[in-house]
Predict the structure.
Amino acid sequence: MKKYFFAVGCSVLFSGCSTSDYQSLAKAALSKNPEVVLKSFATSKSVQYAANPKKLQSDLTSLDKSIAELFNVLIGEATKNWGSENVKTPTQKEYVKYMQNYKSRAMVDFDSGIVTVESLDTKESLKKAIVTTLLFPEDPRSADLFNANEIKLGETPYLLGEIKDDQGKEIRYEWRANRYADILIKNSYQYRVIEHDGKQEGVHYVQIPMVKDHADIRVRKFKPYVEEFAKRFGVSKNLIYAIIKTESDFNQFAVSKAGAIGLMQIVPTSAGRDAYKYAKGSSVTPSKEYLFNAKNNIELGSAYLKIIDKEYLSGIRDTTSREYCTISAYNTGSGNVLKTFHTNKDQAKSIINSKSSLEVYNTLKNELPYMETRRYLQKVLANKKKFVNL
């Protein structure tokens, strides 16, 4: 419990780390007594903040950069073993976790429904990596995507129900995970060679198919949160589901190099801070651990949709037109959406009100400044139809 409170407290302190800070933290994570090192680091940061309160605000606003620095550290450590051409990092729709001092890794491709577990070490190391992958906990406090520290198993597995063993059984306990790992190595073991610094390295690996309805299992897992916050904030359930599907494909640990985190891909210092204040009543920049928590993420994502709809885009009378604008604004910001119609916000809203919802849709689809956002609107609307009967 003491370690948990320490971790929560440090999440704020670490939000403003420099490149050298993160390099120090990465080394500390691999040391024999990382907690002592981290406590010393946190103390030095807190002294800085006490002497210079503005530094805290400055560090909070640099959180997006900090996520990028975490990626840099992860890539640097992984490159030492895998080589730059073979490094994989987590994305919105692919979960990547390094283990065993970066010698092994798991990759969960939610689009294809394939889990790949690889090791540069021995078959025994591969087996251990398979077991860890099958039992990786869904609680973000138990493990970190951005390091290769040992993972404490025993909690509810992240992939529970999405992978079943040869007997069609869910894998919740270590004995079953070990049993299935042996079967996978016996029947599905593969070997390949990679190039690393001019040398060849052997990679032991297996590929594990997820169950056919793995996406539906994730939807059901998060359904209580969607329903709770849709009701609380007066937001369409179908819209929340569609945003999650589009942003992360229901990958709780989704992360982008732009700094967006979790199911609804929330950027902590902008949408995260605004939504936290709206939902909780205090000005707090949520940490990545906070946003990797599914309930927290859906709460803040739903709150942010409400903010866009009722505050940023207030004055747009037609509900369908406002929804089109809200979806686009979730991706690119309300300012860019309104500028599509006029540089003056009030005039932009007047123009929107003078158009039919179909005309508003066509304008957004064809004239938004970024192709990504034009496609985003179409994807969300298409995905929204998939959840009508949920």
About this structure: The longest helix spans residues 63-82. The CA atoms of residues 76 and 84 lie 8 Å apart.
